[in-house]
Amino acid sequence: MTTERLIRTALVTGLFLFAAAPSALAGPYADALGKCLVGATTAAEKTTLVRWMFSIMSLHPDVQTSSAVTPHQRIAIAKQTAQLVERLLTESCRKEAREAIRYEGSSTLQSSFSLLGQVAARELFANPNVVEGLAEFSQYIDQKKIKEVIEPPQQ
Asked: How far, CA to CA in Å, does 152 sit from each of 20, 74, 139, 143?
């Protein structure tokens, strides 16, 4: 696998797999790499990752009309993200990346970047405005119907 394809695969699959549990799937070297990636990434850089993910998701035809991300903005965000990934893999977490790939294979990049994506998204979702927006939809849910599922009638 080429380096470009390896990095692209790691980013596309790893950063978007928020639901995966990388620590459960990863070995000790991938865990060490994931921790290094998270520790070596600033809050602003995590925001860059989330902006990149959002800009990529906004390309889907079903959500394109809900986003104002321009091609120029997407390219700028992609460049920032590429610089970040390059720094993480070649400088900040070089040793961990080499060991993870050497001992556990190139797929370790996927689980390690997945962890970074999860942390970045978690920090984004912790913002009070986002929390308020998440709660907003609950006013449209029939609470009685949900309660019937959660708390079935006693027999």
From this structure: 30, 48, 22, 13
